[in-house]
Amino acid sequence: MKKFLSVICCLVVGGFTGCSSVPETKSNRINIVCTVFPECDWIREIAGNSDNIEITYLLSNGADMHSYQPSMDDIIKISSCDLFVHTGGESDKWTENVINQAKNKDIIVLDMLESLGNSAKVEEIKEGMQSEEPEDSAEYDEHIWLSLDNAVTLCNVITDTICQIDPENSAEYRENLSAYRQKLETLGNEYTESLSGIENKTLIFGDRFPFRYLVDDYGLDYFAVFSGCSAETEASFETITFLADKVDELNIDTIFTIEGSDDSVARAIISGTETQNQKIVKLNSIQSVTSQQIDNGVTYLSIMRSNLDTLKEVLS
């Protein structure tokens, strides 16, 4: 697939730079392309009411970031943008060929995992978790936006970069950042206050677990079927049994899944418990937000607040 994608990139980008007989004109607007929703929403907040910034969100159809491959149209958009913001990590390996062959040789690229530095976490394999084939090297957990602390850090980085591109309007962008950062920090304080006093701080996930950054921020623990970036879909008898026993041991009444799950693995865990009466509750990993949801008012903050409300209800 990667070799095929490389060929497509060459054809599309090469064709664009060498075959057009129409003189190219460049808009004065800053063209920013981003992959996942949190980055898109952060940029929207930083841009505010500015007419100078045009934002393109590539996964607006709700595609899973772990299996996404860009279309020709996506490649063209990236190739000609001013700023490309992507998460980084294993799921974004496809970006390398696109960036290297971009029509705009002055494109600025922000790798969010790279921007986090030492705050980026290596993918964790917990006790009882479904094992996969070992990787040649450490794989980083890509769900960096599920930490409000990370969100503050990355919004700072994004703002600095946009101000570098458009210094004339930097005061406006920094003012927008200041207002948004206050909202992020306020919600972070609410998480701390709400989750610090709970007794049972262990979550059981009958699903992938993309919430490593969140649980680490607030001193929670977890057990899960799959790691956050796992491509596995089938759980072994041993994994199901381990988690069912853990539910009984900790007297847990809720099994968590993420958005889009069919809950089949969670139901299998429940069937293996003593009481078999646990409820299934979803947390939103914010990695598959659609354009329709955005039109309906969904934001990064609204989903993070909804996740907090869910945790408070389940853990209190």
What does this structure look like?
The chain is built from twelve helices and eight strands. With 316 residues, the chain is of the alpha/beta class. Strands 2-1-3-4 form a four-stranded parallel sheet. Strands 5-6 form a two-stranded parallel sheet. Helix 2 links the parallel strand 1 and strand 2. Helix 1 crosses helix 3 (72-79), helix 2 (37-47) packs across helix 6 (148-165) and helix 7 (170-195) runs parallel beside helix 12. The protein starts with a helix and ends with a helix. Residues 1-26 have low confidence and may be disordered.
Which structural class do the helices and strands define? alpha/beta
Counting H and I runs of at least 4 residues, what is the number of helices? 12
Integer-rounded radius of gyration: 21 Å
Q: What spatial form do the alpha-carbon principal axes imply?
A: globular
Spell out the helices and strands N to C: HEHEHEHEHHHEHEHEHEHH
Spatial strand order of the main sheet = 2-1-3-4
Helix content: 40-55%
In total, how many beta strands?
8
* Average of the residue pLDDT scores: 88
**Which runs of at least 5 residues are low in confidence (pLDDT < 50)?**
1-26
Biggest sheet descriptor = 4 strands, parallel
